[in-house]
Amino acid sequence: MGFDKNNQDYNVLVSGGSIAGLTLTYWLHHYGFNVTLIERNDGLRLGGQNIDVKGPGWEVMQKMDLEKKLKAAHTTEKGIRFVKKDNTIAGEFPANNALSMTQEIEILRGDFVEILFEKVKDKAAFRFNTHITALQNDHTGTEVTFNNNQKEKFDLVLIAEGIGSSTRNLVFGSTVKFKYTGIYSSYFTMKKAATDNHWARWHNAVGAVVFLIRPDNHSTTRACIFFRSPERGYEKLSVGEQKDLLITKIKNVGWEADRIVDAIRESDDLYVERVSQVKMPTFYNERVAVVGDAAYCVTPLAGKGTDLAIAGAYILAGELAKNSNYTEAFQNYQDLVKPYATSVQKLPPGVPRLAYPSSKMGVVVLNGFFSLASSKFAKFLTNLFGGSKSKTKSDFQLPTY
Ligand SMILES: Cc1cc2nc3c(=O)[nH]c(=O)nc-3n(C[C@H](O)[C@H](O)[C@H](O)COP(=O)(O)OP(=O)(O)OC[C@H]3O[C@@H](n4cnc5c(N)ncnc54)[C@H](O)[C@@H]3O)c2cc1C
């Protein structure tokens, strides 16, 4: 098989069944490719809080005719409040405020993944509990060995496995660089409490711990705990060990920590990840290309990871459809996406250090900023928290295929 393709005879393996992988599957199928999607987990991974879909990512969703469904899954969040230990409000930013992290489209990551899956479930062969253990390229294709030791040949392998991608590491080895921001994030679902409402609540606790509690549309509450730490590989611990770690970190920091400790113990969707950017000199090697967080994770601090994953998937599929040579297609994809990803990866000055004070005084100062910022220091805070609504970062022209 060469790349003088009749798309229907062209077998593409997509690895990773989340936002990048499912979007990619939709567009590859749309152009006539034969797609197999593998996912390491035993089902879709539906954990996490809200994710940002805007800019080019939103344009792609419109092209996929998903606008209505995504809007209907709105989490009901009205805006964000920065709250002190007694839950009094230090600063408040409603959804329509340029500083608010609450967007017009607020959707849970899990709802989003389910909506995408619904759209593509009959457009590819899906295999769960499956991952790649080895790959071998030759002029006829890529021979893939799966975790069940079965071997199979594909024309192309596209990796959409998120930040911790093991197949990317197999193929690209030490060329993959990570820029650790000094923060770990953890996400889980918990029971709704009397203090939860339609506002997201951000609380800076001592010990460089940040709680972000957000409403959802499932009668539960989505919790996120960020904490500063040297890089320790916590993302590789077992779930039980991660629970113990988090409980130890937060049990004495006050605010609603007691309730959150209980929720961590009960949780069944805990997800712990280091907040790191991924930087790859090239997004492809022979017949293998990388897309989404696996290739250019920007971190939630930059607020554009999902947008980039969607746009990247759309462009990768579009270039493969447009070019009769896969190397050219991969190169064009890289030329289009890399500059955008690199610009988004430039975090504003002060992030993350200023936003995660470790001392009591630092927390007081930060809360002071929040209350002033509600009226005066808007620009400063826009920069501090990633400027998710800033103009420069959304200046990206999505190609038409
Ligand atoms: C459980 C979970 C919760 C998250 N919560 C948030 C959140 O609350 N806020 C936020 O901003 N971002 C969150 N993220 C990250 C966010 O989804 C991404 O930043 C972004 O949407 C880009 O998506 P992606 O498809 O590139 O990667 P991801 O969404 O990370 O998806 C990667 C997928 O690949 C699968 N996978 C991993 N390794 C392999 C392998 N070797 N073989 C096959 N499949 C593999 C994973 O199980 C996962 O389904 C979360 C990710 C996950 C997995």
From TrEMBL:
Keyword Oxidoreductase tagged: yes
Domain (FAD-binding) ranges: 10-323
PANTHER family: MONOOXYGENASE (PTHR46865:SF2), OXIDOREDUCTASE-RELATED (PTHR46865)
Superkingdom of the organism of origin: Bacteria
One of the record's GO molecular function terms: monooxygenase activity
Keyword Repeat (UniProt): no
Name of the featured protein: FAD-dependent monooxygenase
UniProt cross-references to InterPro entries, sorted A to Z: FAD-bd, FAD/NAD-bd_sf, FAD_aromatic-hydroxylase
Alphabetic keyword roster: Monooxygenase, Oxidoreductase
Organism: Sphingobacterium oryzagri
Name of one Pfam family that matches: FAD_binding_3
